[in-house]
Amino acid sequence: MSFIAEYGFVLLVLACAFGFFMAWGVGANDVANAMGTSVGSRALTIKQAIIVAMIFEFCGAYLAGGEVTETIKNGIVDAEVISPDLMVLGMMSALLAAGTWLLIATMKGWPVSTTHSIIGAVIGFAAVGVSTDAVHWDAIGPIVASWVVTPLLSGIVAFGLFMSVQKLIINTDDPFLNAKRFVPLYMFLTGFMVALMTVTKGLKHVGLTLSGGQGILLAFAIGVLVMLVGIALLSRIKLDVEADRTFHYASVEKVFAVLMIFTACSMAFAHGANDVANAVGPLAAVVGVIQSGGAAEIAAKSAVPGWVLLLGAVGIVIGLATYGYKVIATIGKEITELTPSRVFAAELATATTVVGASAIGLPVSTTHTLVGAVLGIGIARGIGALNLGVVGSIFMSWLITLPAGAFLSIVFFTILKAIFV
After folding, report:
1. Pair 314, 328: CB distance under 8 Å
2. Model confidence at 344, in pLDDT bands (50, 70, 90)?
3. Closest C-alpha among 110, 38, 37 to residue 336
4. Closest CA to 20 of 12, 32, 10, 31
5. Which residues in 168-207 are b (16+ Cβ under 10 Å) and which e?
6. Cβ(274)–Cβ(357) below 8 Å
7. Closest CA relative to residue 366, chosen from 22, 27, 18
8. Beta bridge partners of 336
9. Cα separation of 67 and 283, whole Å?
10. 193-248 pLDDT, tens per residue?
11. Quick one: which of 115, 226, 176, 165 has its CA closest to 349?
């Protein structure tokens, strides 16, 4: 106890700094998941993508980030096995380790998984620095399984959405007319899906609790509102005969570019909701232990403070604005050729999968989910449409991430123990 009583304030300041550094890394690296495809399809410029992501990443992190944060905070390690002193130093080490790895990956332009980084780091300090009994190994299974299941699920959903676009719009006698007819329905689906997950699961920690019926009704209203805004924007788009001579579907893609604004917003929201936990989960654990005076059991049960989610949200936004452009090019331009109609399918599939996972508190990899969706679209067009060299290098960076996070965490844990204990 004396250790936390003596150094409590210093530890809290350091933990906030490390948490902010990790959140910065999430923004700088993982923003490619939310925005890379929008930029790659030329639906948004990098500047517009950063503005959209700043608003919706922040909203997702603050409004719907609580469920997954709880899993990262308590679900991976056993607070009763680890002493409060080691819990504080270990979670700080995990934040610093994951943040460092993300900085290295971002400098290289690799879209790695921030979820892998932080989970690897937490397991590393707990298993090696404390005891293998300190890890909830039974809880790791569903998380690891989700890294395989979510890209697969996202790929299947993206494939289905892309084929529906082909059937309803592209392969018809009047693609432009059908695009203006059916795209508003896709807009409704986007607004309804994100709103439903948010209002029914994510708003409890900001003091708003709705019943199932109220949640569905509000989500339906938001979906209709999104659709009406979309219809107003679509009314300005006219058939461009000249552009259609060069590329038969140029006018259709302009319609989908409007839809892309909505799917980009939902993608950023979903990303903020799931991935803010990677930065603030360990920080919430440290804050809980310090505020409870070293009582890890009380800390484990304490709610995630709103200001901790706020710190994570601000860190993500700053990381995105300062260094996010580095990784955007990899996902947006190098996996497969992207157009607004293809990207819509990838982003809506990813947002649906990620927001759904956030609602049940499962920390999934947004990177894996989006790459799965982009691969699904590539496969729908034929395997030759994929740049297999880039896909291979992305898979390699994924394999390295978890052990890299664990190794760095053990190193920083050893250093912090030498300084404070």
Report:
1. no
2. confident
3. 37
4. 12
5. bbbeeeebbebbbebbbebbbbbbbbbbbbbbbbbbebee
6. yes
7. 27
8. 386
9. 15
10. 777 766 665 555 555 666 667 778 888 998 999 899 989 988 888 887 777 777 76
11. 165
Query: Is the separation of the CB atoms in 372 and 155 below 8 Å?
Result: yes
| Bridge partners of residue 135, in order along the sequence | 77
Give the Cα separation of 346 and 255 in Å (integer).
16
Dist. CA 46–CA 328, nearest whole Å: 9
pLDDT tens by residue, 39-57:
777 777 878 877 887 788 8
Encode pLDDT of 1-46 as tens digits: 567 777 778 888 999 999 999 999 988 887 766 677 777 777 778 7
The dihedrals phi and psi of 140, each to the nearest 5 degrees, come to: -70, -35
- Residue at token pair 């009380």: 298
Query: b/e for 219-251, b at 16 or more Cβ within 10 A?
Result: beebbeebbebbeebbeebeeeeeeeeeeebbb
- Output the CA–CA distances (angstroms, integers) from residue 291 to 13, 66, 294, 343, 361, in the order listed: 13, 19, 8, 45, 24
Provide the token pair at 329.
């090019």
* Structure-block tokens of residue 331: 């996902």
pLDDT tens column, 85-140 = 888 898 899 999 999 999 998 887 777 878 788 888 988 888 887 788 878 787 77
Residue for token digits 């990443």? Answer: 57
Euclidean distance between CA atoms 20 and 416, whole angstroms: 18
